[in-house]
Amino acid sequence: DDDDDIPQLSSHTLAALQEFYLEQQQREGMKTSQGFNQYSIGSIEEDWQLSQFWYSDETASCLANEAVVAAGKGGRIACVSAPSVYQKLKEQDGKDFSVCILEYDRRFSVYGEEFIFYDYNHPLSLPDSLLPHSFDIVIADPPYLSEECLQKTAETIKYLTKGKILLCTGAIMEEQAAKHLGVKICKFIPKHSRNLANEFRCYVNYASGLD
């Protein structure tokens, strides 16, 4: 066999990967020594193999606050493949809203009944308890930048929402987002805890605080 076809990591990428694993070990140590809050951002590490990229703390807070305002008093919020926003919402204990998370990663089952296993390949394979058009706002971050993934996730969003949609995806998906969900790009630019090569944007179909 010829070894030339084996992918090689650049020295910069290798150093970044080593730094990531070192940070991960340090965070694990913090969790055990400080009684880490299992419901806060970072309590579940992002899994790149599942195309998971957590928002920065500031972005997650901003999107969570926007969802609360958009949902209104006593509102219901659904987070579809957006666990870091869900975790920020959970930090707001006592606020007058309810929230659930639809997520493929079963580690999020620690959230109990609010966790709903979700595979975008089966967009309407949802429990009977999730009634159609029963959420005041749906915030979604499809795991892949493809029209197929967006189109299928859009089926789920349209089933769940009473009307309001907050979509987070790549800037390159602007045309498809408008096509499948009727959403328009916002001025607000979401950031991730680790810088991604793809430019991300937010899209809404209502008058939001993100402009």
TrEMBL record:
Keyword Chaperone: no
Keywords: Cytoplasm, Methyltransferase, Transferase
GO terms under biological process: methylation
Pfam families the record matches: N6-adenineMlase (PF10237)
Entry GO CC: cytoplasm
Reaction(s) this enzyme catalyzes, per UniProt: L-lysyl-[protein] + 3 S-adenosyl-L-methionine = N(6),N(6),N(6)-trimethyl-L-lysyl-[protein] + 3 S-adenosyl-L-homocysteine + 3 H(+)
GO molecular function term, any single one: protein-lysine N-methyltransferase activity
Record SUPFAM superfamilies: S-adenosyl-L-methionine-dependent methyltransferases
InterPro entries listed in its UniProt record: DNA_methylase_N6_adenine_CS (IPR002052), Efm5/EEF1AKMT1 (IPR019369), Mlase_EEF1AKMT1/ZCCHC4 (IPR041370), SAM-dependent_MTases_sf (IPR029063)
Domain of life: Eukaryota
UniProt-annotated location(s): Cytoplasm
PANTHER family in alphabetical order: EEF1A LYSINE METHYLTRANSFERASE 1
Name of the molecule in the record: EFMT1 methyltransferase
The species this protein was found in: Thinocorus orbignyianus
